[in-house]
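Fill-in record for Acyltransferase.
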Amino acid sequence: MGKPGRQANFELLRIIAMFMVVILHWNTNSGLLLDVGSPVTGAGVWSLVTESVCIVAVNVYVLISGYFLSSCTFSFRRVAQVLVQTLFYTVLIPPVLALVGVLSWSEVLNPYHIWNSIFPVQSGHYWFVSAYVVLCLLSPFFNAGLETLSQKRMQQLLAALLLFFCIGKSFSPLQFALDRFGYDLGWFAVLYLTGGYLKKYGMPRLDSFPKNIALYAGCTLGTFLLELLLLPLAGRLTGLTYYASVPFHYNALFAYLAAVGLFGAFAVLKVKEGRLADMVRFWSPAVFGVYLIHQQTDIAQRWFAWVNALTGRLGDFWNIVPGETGVTAGRMLLVLLVQSVTVFVVCIGIERLRLCVFDRIGKSCGRFAAK
């Protein structure tokens, strides 16, 4: 099973966060998510609901990293594992797709495509991996600051960083030139330090599951209502077009606080040891592979059509055409759930298989070296 040292509550949160990521990408690909000027539909409103519920996913993932890595000794091995895992998919997926006829060999052998595949971090093949790897490399400096600074000084530092990266942009109707909507190392640093702060000092006022869930639910509701208000306003006032997208930025204030609330809820959650805890520990190491597979550059623009075709064999009900009008809310929610689960299960199964193969290779190499 999974490593004994893994805490089942946080590993369960890691699994849930990655499933939320799949839902976010499904919403984007479906074309049902309401936007400025688009007609208001029941399916569109529920897309806003699911987007508001899941927008915390990436923030939660980085908070977990900050919570644990802030008290760990730095290891290049950890960074190497992320790089090997990433390279496995960026290098092998293109030829596999060519063998099954999805890509042409000329596309696979294109020098730019090859370069993008063998240098995924530098090329930004996955924006998350690019920011996360550099964050890990800088983590010893962040950890030193967390260790040496007083609690009051850490609070002041976090407040200043939040003012720069989060609070200011959350109230500005115009985009700041340095704002990357949370898709950058700067915001990841804020989340990492937040996780490290919570590890060291906790939050006395949020010391129970109900209080943390209330924070998450309240901020999620705030995100939804704000977006529901801004979209029609932006349709009449073009100057608000940018601001109508702000509630769904990772570094929006509501998204940040909701992530802290959800993280805090699972921090105090007790998962009883037994079969469930063992299953969580077994599958959680494979969840990052879900992201690496379905967001690989050659798959990212195709997987929605593939899962549509797969579930569409059950009938037209299960096929969502991007931008399709007349989709009922019930149909949208059911198809979203079935297709997102399908993508998640297939990808996590592939990654779990890769982990098993790599584990056997490692053990075989170890026995060979011992001879």
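KEY FINDING: The chain has a mean pLDDT of 93.
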